Amino acid sequence: MTFAATVLTLYPEMFPGPLGLSLAGRALSEGVWSLDSVQIRDFATDKHRSVDDTPAGGGAGMVLKPDVLATAIDHARARQPDAPVLAMSPRGAPLTQSRIRALADGPGVTILCGRFEGFDERIFEGRDVEPVSIGDYILSGGEVGALVLLDACIRLLPGVMGAASSGVEESFESGLLEYPHYTRPVDWEGRTIPEVLRSGDHAKIAAWRKQQAETDTRLRRPDLWERHEGARVKPPSGARRRTRDE
Ligand code: SAH
What we know:
Residues 208-246 are annotated as: Disordered. The chain is an alpha/beta fold.
């Protein structure tokens, strides 16, 4: 089944962009996924084809109009009623690997790309649109965010990645960062590949990798580590763990 992506944007020519190359590009030409990039301005109704207006309450910039967005969304939904409609927004929940995996398991996705100051807030409830963020920084528009989301989904689609196993051990799949990698030359500028990786002892290698993944996650991403540890030690009921004094 083809994973169908629809992107609603003021810059449809930004797509497929980098997703037309490499693994995603091949999968696109093979029909593993499809892409429809739709010009939001085509749904404007006035003679200037305006899509934005000044912010209520004053302030800088322009806001995307809810009536124009709604018509564009209705158009996309009519063609693909089962796909969730997401809007790129720094005010949304940050994307995670598990959310990406759930999206990739579905029929596709419709992505609304913001520009200027973003969307009229009423669109989210009015059209059941879910805001999603790609991280705590501000882009100039949602298009690059949409490319990020789609790239992360597409590589998970069946047949896209070469080795079937290569999706499973990645960073975040187990709630941890992945272990570090090395390749030849064994000695590079006086820095050598860790001895254990050259030992041929698969059990020892697996133990070393697990330990590295844990140490790196603890040091680099204490937020992930805390969640991982919490999930591991917390009873399923969510009851509080007993402290030493109890
Ligand atoms: N005024 C907004 C930012 C607007 S940036 C605010 O401060 O919240 C313009 C557009 O870029 C947004 O509508 C959104 O579509 C996109 N964008 C910016 N940062 C993003 C992020 N971190 N994740 C997803 N989309 C983002």
